[in-house]
Amino acid sequence: MGRIFVLELEGRSYRCKFCKTHLALFSDCVSRAFHCRRGKAYLFNNAVNITMGALEERMMLSGVHTVADIFCCFCGQIVGWKYETAHDMAQKYKEGKFVLERGRIIEEVDFSTEFDIDSEDA
Q: Would you say the pTM of this structure is higher than 0.90?
């Protein structure tokens, strides 16, 4: 097996729940209104540190789509899927986007910005 290279994201991000590997930036989130078999899910423009499974036709609530499951590249856990093709014209906006299942990710808040919380009134 080869060496695994993992990208570290700066700023507010989402990580794999199982191994804490960065997966997506908060700013790349397109929608938080998605659902999957296991509960809530988020739609992203981009995702990193993932591997893709085989393409398959899948019947979803919004119709038939060609999708591929996506896995964390570090621990191998399934974290969501990628939309390759939407067969309905109204669903074309999903093509090329990633869905991360809420129950398989954690949100990381960026504390690198400095601010003073102990300011006193003069």
A: no
